[in-house]
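Re: How this chain folds, sequence and tokenised backbone to follow
How to read it: Take the token row as a discrete description of the fold.
Start of record: The labelled sequence and token lines come straight after this line.
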Amino acid sequence: MKNSSYLIILIVIAVMTGCEQQKKIVPGKYPVAQKSDQTDDYFGTAVSDPYRWLEDDNSDETAAWVKAENEVTFGYLEQIPFRAKVKERLEQIWDYPKFSAPFREGEYYYFFKNDGMQNQYVLYQQKGLDGEPVLFLDPNTFSEDGTISLSGLEFSKDAKYAAYSISKSGSDWNEIFVLDVATKTKLEDHLEWIKFSGLAWKNDGFYYSSYGKPGEGDALKGKNEYHKVYYHKIGTPQSEDVLFYKNDEYPLRNYSAGTTEDESLLIMSESESTSGNSLYIKKLDDKSSQLIQITEGFDNEYNIIDNSGDILLIMTNQDAPKWKLVRVDLSQPEKENWKVVIPEKEEVLQSVSVVGGKLLATYMKDAVSVAFIYDYEGNNPGDLSLPGIGTLAGISGKKEDNIAFYTFTSFTFPSTIYKYDVAKNTSEIFIQPDIDFDMNAYETKQVFYTSKDGTKVPMFLVYKKGMTMNGKNPTYLYGYGGFNISMTPGFSITRLVLLENGFVYAMACLRGGGEYGEDWHEAGTKLKKQNVFDDFIAAAEYLITENYTSPEKLAIAGGSNGGLLVGACMIQRPDLFKVALPAVGVMDMLRYHKFTIGWAWASDYGTSEDDAEMFNYLYGYSPLHTLKAGVEYPATLVTTADHDDRVVPAHSFKFAATLQEKHKGENPVLIRIDVKAGHGGGKPTAKVIEEYTDEWSFIMVNLGVKPIYQ
């Protein structure tokens, strides 16, 4: 009898356990969002906007809605049985020392380091490469919770001062402080309401850009207008800063100032969007010198690389969609007098660094880094040999130094710092991270698939070696497709959690990006934006056709412009994806330009006010406006943050409210609204881990994945 009773108990426990594992997690009742009768007229078309009130981030009604939505979302997430284990694994794998490449300022080298779980990276100083590192600036002391981050740093040319900017809760608004390098003490200088600004030193002061203090209640959503350039002298209050440049005729233009290494020239860049700029030059040592314009219009881009007196090296895509390097003599600045130093190549030129009397040029071929070495006349003495297929992430070094440093990374190759001897053209590992993870167990490959119009699009795939392609593998498809931003191989700690749980990671290099130069970018802009969505949908279809996965095992994700991508694709093809994660997305394509810096995106998107054709095109794919009632959409976790003043959270608020109103079916459609966080930059480690814990848990539970550490 005892044995029989014991057996019955075991059977009951087994049955109960099985039921628990099969228990479906459902969200609580979605908050009912009040609807207004707000309607706008666009070229004779009436467009309703019933959730317009959610654009007011200061109202009690919006705050109540946010609170109610988060209660439902976190109530759902807390039911996921393995959520705590996912977080534990993320914390475990995250905890290793991380370094930046060192850079020299005066007699000291500086580098950033995170011991493992610190919220923010710490800046260290050491004398020479063999000196003992000492703490120079610790952003973790800026706030107890790590939500104040270092957003900019620039040493004076004589290395006497270091000006640095901070961001609070991820906002684009910055404050500037100044350190005395010798004593490491903070001076009394304190500048506020700085935005989209560099720090350009001249003598004992610096140039910076600002819109000025915003109106009451407009700090996080008000339209940014009338960007100005000021000069601040060390030891004086901000109220005494000298206005260097303003343009009252064009409120929707941005201005940034830079100075050459010898401080002889000021270079001012003028832009009205995220691509294209005009250049202005002023000779700082000549009091009679005027600010002169050397390029006009915004059809092309011009980046100053170096100068020798009045001779400039400029990297540009003028008449060169894949970029070139030219030499410009300021005594004859007309374009017909420019001399080509490095002509346009088949590969896309990404950057040029001047180190040790050489020009180190980084290129991209099929979204993979290659590098060449030139002399000042553009002769090519050799290649910079890279460790493999991946991304060369910046070269640091002074033009008079023979030693430079660069970082190389790939999907299963953690960011490794190399010391480069320019004269010998040799590299050696300087710092290599030690991560407790078997990178050799995974493989990376690049495929080329065909989009709707026949265009070949590259995509990277990463997965466990020996994986069976049976159409049942959980897959995470990521994309961006905009603003000339290229998707290249890079390492992610968080992604390892997906890989070790049997996921295929797929990253598509969509049109709208810069992977093949300006032509590739333009092919995904304005009236061609649908190409981007078609490319992403074709990537999903390729993964399914080639038996990597199936619609029931496929999750899609993207942030910012990538959030728009996910929103549009989940609406156009809801049958193709099981899970969608649109993060900080641009969801209202009719009103995006009315908030903060949104107007600058018009070069990629166009605006609803341009003309009837542009309005109709935007209206035809805008995620907010194309949601349909009675459709079963993928399981969706929208993510945004209360201090996002880049893509204001109203985009996600209105989209989530509309999605919950119109969605039919059992898939959860939720919104996670972070607090004291912004568009993503400067987010503390603790918050990053919390966010990925929730995203990965949401994906796994909705794809039916049981984590190996459950």
Residues 2-22 form the longest helix (21 residues). Residues 38-92+444-703 form a domain with the Rossmann fold fold (CATH 3.40.50.1820).
